[in-house]
Give the backbone structure.
Amino acid sequence: MAPATVAGADGGIAGYFRVRSQGSSVATEVRAGVATFMVMAYIMPFTWSITNGIGAGFITHVVVKLVVGKRRQVHWMLYLTSLAFVVYFCVPLIETLGR
């Protein structure tokens, strides 16, 4: 059994990591982890491109925020950058279809 100072008043994962004392929640951390997982475990190893990984992370972050209804938490420049990455990813596809 963990001491109360380790587990915190909340107990469980939130108490162990002291998530609430940092001004966050377990749900927020899980949502942030989705974008990180996409970049680290999927995009970068399979594409061998840091640019693709960063772009996918930006796009995933924006999509996750939109899906959970927190669109106001995303800065307008991140929307603009994500849109630029969408164009960056779509241009080769469009060029291939045009041939």
Q: What stands out?
A: The chain has five helices and no strands.
